[in-house]
Amino acid sequence: MFNVISNELLAENLHKMVISAPRVARARKPGQFVIVRLAPGEERIPLTIGDADAQAGTITLFIQAIGASTQKIVATPAGGALRDVAGPLGKETHIANWGRVACVGGGVGTAVLFPLVKALAGAGNRITTIIGGRSSRYIILADELAPLSERLLVTTEDGTLGSTGFVTGPLQEMLADPERAPQAVFAVGPVPMMKAVAELTRPHGIETVVSLNPIMIDGTGMCGGCRVQIGGATKFACVDGPEFDAHLVDFDGLSDRLSSYRKEEAARHAATGCRLKEERR
Amino acid sequence: MNKLTPKERMAIERVVMPELPADERSRNFEEVNLGLSENQAFEEARRCLQCKNRACVAGCPVGVSIPEFIDALASDDLPRAANILRGDNALPAVCGRVCPQETQCEARCVRGVKGESVAIGFLERYVADWAMHHPDRLLRAELPPATGKKVAVVGCGPAGLTAAGELVRMGHGVTIFEALHDTGGVLRYGIPEFRLPKEIIDQEVAQLTELGVVIECNVIIGKTLTVAELREEYDAVFVANGAGLPIMLNIPGENLKGVYAANEFLTRVNLMEAGRRPESATPIIRSREVAVIGGGNTAMDCVRTARRLGAERAMIVYRRSEAEMPARVEEIKHAKEEGVEFVMLTAPLAVTATEDGWVAGLRCQMMELGPPDASGRRKPIPIPGSEFDLPAGVVVNAVGTNANPLLTATAPDLTLNKWGNIVADENGMTSIPGVFAGGDIVRGGATVILAMGDGKRAAAAIQEYLKGK
Ligand SMILES: Cc1cc2nc3c(=O)[nH]c(=O)nc-3n(C[C@H](O)[C@H](O)[C@H](O)COP(=O)(O)OP(=O)(O)OC[C@H]3O[C@@H](n4cnc5c(N)ncnc54)[C@H](O)[C@@H]3O)c2cc1C
Ligand code: SF4
Ligand code: FES
């Protein structure tokens, strides 16, 4: 059992949960994740470790409740417990001092980005952080990211916060300006966003790292479900990743495999949604 | 009681295991073999000739005292039979179900020379199941006084469980660290319910925890803790983390939606209970046509699972012929009875796709058998121009696994062979003092009983090692 220390709603559907997991907190490095199973019968869900406090023995998870499983996880209040938390899994982020770095986050990807920004800032990089979402309600962690970044730019599709458009807009401007062009780019978000970033930096030959989110079960290299194509070779994201060279990733293959269970998920979502409503009545 | 002449013994015919009817069982996950009745077990036990040279025992990787436990059974002394069996074999209810007796003890049985061997496996299962249902009638072994020594076991599969059982009975403190959220290793996530009910693993594990073995799930050695950290806290370490890293087919279309590695397919259904219990949140893709590539136990388990998930055509696609299949005879027989199709001498060239990225089927090529290859089996040779398409909505790759590098990657002092398996001597000793290893991580994919034998030998070696400390 892993106790929930706190559970805060940061934005619509986005929760910040602090969990007691002393061993994970001690071993964890930026870029790594845990696999959470709320209770018997529930799915195993990979979640990035947003932050950790080795002394307090806690890890912080930022969870966007989009599916039936994540909704149930975020419904666990402080004082409650998660049955299984296994990790830290995956490779740690390769952190170096590149000089100027752009960190790009879309939606809940911003939460995955947060520990990277923290580590990159710690290594002395000058960071431009660009975060975006559909509208202001989906912009998260701006206050936490601002002090770590030289500049923080916000974009929303509906213009309710920052500049109107996608995260790729400000990135493109940076790339075009030799004074501001970054030496490395980190991008985490929806697959189309990461793909767009990869295409933008490719002609400039700028080192670009993305964090992938394929479907996983064990997270230890046992099942092969998380396989992705990197430069034509099969890699297991849970052990070889989750971060990869963006210019080598087969993004189309990834988004296709991510849709494998769309039908089943929709059915389950509908079923649990109905049940929730009934309970309320 | 048990005073029969050899002639009388010879006159008894080998028992037939009662089974669920094939058309019924191919639609559910109930155990196929129902187990012998009391009368059947007793009669079968009386077939044993009580040979002095114990040929069967030599065929058993852990040397179970076979004639002795069978004699106790034939004398209607089940507590004694159970005691003998359980003294030699830590997981008899498991072994009685999944061991390939036909190539081990039963292959050596004297009665097999001119007729049919004694059904040693069925009797083992009978006695083990009896013991499970009559805990109050078993002789309780007293634990020796605690030694104060602590041993860490990595992996809760048959090797780890066996070693833990032996070590705790020697008076050591034992903690098993398991990466998954549940116990049993392949017994839980790989071997399906219809061959090995999960309840049996639960009971075997409960016996160990009652003896004082501590099991910590969700701890991945190499990630959560390292072998070096274990070495600091424990007096010895036994590594039994199995061989779970799927080998890819490396053919076009392998990443289409609907292509599974066997471990994923089986883990979803067995460990996560997808398609097996309505309340399971884990999904599984079903199809009317499922093609499973491979000819081993894993392939049989996958194809029989696919059948139970509703496949009308559940197919084994194998590049050699049935005679070369490594799967157990019983499994092949059961699969056939359940309506599984065997597409033999056929190699997959590619997985074909529908317009929206789902599996459409397998592009195959017919093979013929040439002279024996390095493995001693006849080598399949492609027949030019024999390509054909096999329609399938789900394809499962069951060609095998390699050693998982998660643990070894963080233990640089551990010597590995060229396939990434840990190098250990016959006592399980590795290149790091105090670190022992056994089971599939040492042997590559092997069997439950070999893994258990390793666990038993390593425990004895650990005992010696701890004495010297
Ligand atoms: C589908 C299938 C069917 C089979 N059928 C049969 C059969 O009928 N008869 C037979 O004799 N054999 C069969 N086998 C083979 C048999 O199951 C294995 O040989 C046996 O389970 C090996 O035991 P083990 O203890 O070495 O490893 P495993 O059973 O693989 O157990 C290893 C355990 O270690 C855990 N682990 C892995 N890495 C770590 C880590 N870093 N830290 C902590 N824990 C870790 C794993 O999660 C697992 O629980 C079958 C195998 C499969 C896959
Ligand atoms: S070889 Fe066969 S007949 Fe002889 S003791 Fe063993 S089981 Fe009995
Ligand atoms: S999640 Fe199973 S291999 Fe990566």
UniProtKB/TrEMBL annotation, chain A:
<feature type="binding site">
    <location>
        <position position="238"/>
    </location>
    <ligand>
        <name>[2Fe-2S] cluster</name>
    </ligand>
</feature>
<keyword id="KW-0408">Iron</keyword>
<dbReference type="InterPro" id="IPR050353">
    <property type="entry name" value="PyrK_electron_transfer"/>
</dbReference>
<dbReference type="InterPro" id="IPR017938">
    <property type="entry name" value="Riboflavin_synthase-like_b-brl"/>
</dbReference>
<dbReference type="Pfam" id="PF10418">
    <property type="entry name" value="DHODB_Fe-S_bind"/>
</dbReference>
<keyword id="KW-0479">Metal-binding</keyword>
<dbReference type="InterPro" id="IPR039261">
    <property type="entry name" value="FNR_nucleotide-bd"/>
</dbReference>
<dbReference type="InterPro" id="IPR019480">
    <property type="entry name" value="Dihydroorotate_DH_Fe-S-bd"/>
</dbReference>
<keyword id="KW-0411">Iron-sulfur</keyword>
<keyword id="KW-0001">2Fe-2S</keyword>
<feature type="binding site">
    <location>
        <position position="226"/>
    </location>
    <ligand>
        <name>[2Fe-2S] cluster</name>
    </ligand>
</feature>
<dbReference type="GO" id="GO:0006221">
    <property type="term" value="P:pyrimidine nucleotide biosynthetic process"/>
</dbReference>
<dbReference type="GO" id="GO:0046872">
    <property type="term" value="F:metal ion binding"/>
</dbReference>
<dbReference type="GO" id="GO:0050660">
    <property type="term" value="F:flavin adenine dinucleotide binding"/>
</dbReference>
<dbReference type="InterPro" id="IPR012165">
    <property type="entry name" value="Cyt_c3_hydrogenase_gsu"/>
</dbReference>
<protein>
    <submittedName>
        <fullName>Sulfide/dihydroorotate dehydrogenase-like FAD/NAD-binding protein</fullName>
    </submittedName>
</protein>
<feature type="domain" description="Dihydroorotate dehydrogenase electron transfer subunit iron-sulphur cluster binding">
    <location>
        <begin position="213"/>
        <end position="249"/>
    </location>
</feature>
<feature type="binding site">
    <location>
        <position position="223"/>
    </location>
    <ligand>
        <name>[2Fe-2S] cluster</name>
    </ligand>
</feature>
<dbReference type="GO" id="GO:0051537">
    <property type="term" value="F:2 iron, 2 sulfur cluster binding"/>
</dbReference>
